[in-house]
Amino acid sequence: MVHYGHSNQLRQAKAMGEYLIVGVHTDAEISKHKGPPVFTQEERYKMVRAIKWVDEMVEGAPYVTTLETLDKYNCDFCVHGDDITLTVDGKDTYAEVKREGRYRECKRTQGVSTTDLVGRMLLMTKTHHSNMDNPDYQQHTDNFGKGPKGHSPWTGVSQFLQTSQKIIQFASGKEPQPGDTIIYVAGAFDLFHIGHVDFLEMVYKQAERPYVIVGLHFDQEVNRYKGKNYPIMNIHERTLSVLACRYVSEVVIGAPYAVGKDLLDHFKVDLVCHGKTEVFPDKDMSDPYAEPKKSGVFRTINSGNNLTTDDIVQRIIENRLQFEARNQKKEAKEMAVIEAMKRREHQSEGAAQAAH
């Protein structure tokens, strides 16, 4: 998947240098080393290009990063999160560049992982945001994220904790300027994906100088009109996901469902857009876009992409057994590395004591 944890890693990486090149692996490489990817390589290429800290993207990057790769793209060093990545035979994929001092590490975003998101999708309940302690959820995470022994710190399920600092780091901080066209869109933008990216790109292209504001509905509101266990991501996670997109200038956290006159006046909105997806009526059965339609500022956008959050959940459910096997295998490899690290520490401590 491509989620805000990855965006945060790219943000940190960009801050370490001036120009960020991101290599994305093919489906075949990921299947070989990790298990089936959720998004196809073409979808992932496009999604990574849409992250605002990315300057350049390399398609089909090798799974093992070598000095040759770094030199080929004229890179001083490569950056990875502080979790372990291993090849199918359990080797550190960054061993060579680490030896040569051309490796940097950035902090992993606590509380999100592909594993956790997949777990939430497989656990189709309404309560996953509020009810992490419920026995069903615990039982499910046990099946999903744990191998037979122990618990890897990288593959567990934890809750994301939003801070004002994180929002500031992701936000552009740019005010609309005279001459900008202020475009407003609203929705859940759950599990931010290529369908959203294509839509926002088309919205961005509606004006010469677009300033795109995305209104995000609160979790309860999304649950009211989407049902099931939506949203999969809570409002804080969805905020970061949308802010990381290069086509977005500003996010309204907890936007009203009906796009009323107050909102249009407050943000001086020139244009309100909505995609081809169904517009659910408000609680009183009224059209949430009645006001912008009446004012003549409403536009329906056809992005040419019909992918929905529902479709992604379906992909996960269809591949459920493969994903569960993938996570158990990944955890077992991580646990083996942790055991080996512990053994090495004990050996060096033993040698140090013997030297005394």
UniProtKB/TrEMBL annotation:
**Coiled-coil annotated spans:** none
The processes (GO biological process) annotated in the record are: phosphatidylethanolamine biosynthetic process
In the record, what lineage is assigned to the organism producing the protein? Eukaryota, Metazoa, Chordata, Craniata, Vertebrata
Protein's name according to its UniProt entry: ethanolamine-phosphate cytidylyltransferase
Q: Which InterPro entries match?
A: CCT, Cyt_trans-like, Ect1/PCYT2, Rossmann-like_a/b/a_fold
| Family the entry assigns | Belongs to the cytidylyltransferase family.
**What's in the keyword line of the UniProt record?**
Lipid biosynthesis, Lipid metabolism, Nucleotidyltransferase, Phospholipid biosynthesis, Phospholipid metabolism, Transferase
| Entries under Pfam families matching the protein | CTP_transf_like
A GO MF term = ethanolamine-phosphate cytidylyltransferase activity
SUPFAM superfamilies with a match to the protein in the record: Nucleotidylyl transferase (SSF52374)
Please state the span of the N-terminal signal peptide per the UniProt entry.
none
| Domain Cytidyltransferase-like, chain residue ranges per copy | 1-118, 185-278
Key word Kinase present: no
Against Gene3D superfamilies, the record matches this protein to: HUPs
Query: CDD domains, from UniProt?
Result: CCT (cd02174), ECT (cd02173)
Give the main EC class: transferase
| A GO-annotated cellular component | cytoplasm
Key word Transferase present: yes
What's the EC number here?
2.7.7.14
Question: Pathway, per Swiss-Prot/TrEMBL?
Answer: Lipid metabolism; Phospholipid metabolism; phosphatidylethanolamine biosynthesis; phosphatidylethanolamine from ethanolamine: step 2/3
Q: Which organism is it from?
A: Cottoperca gobio (Frogmouth)
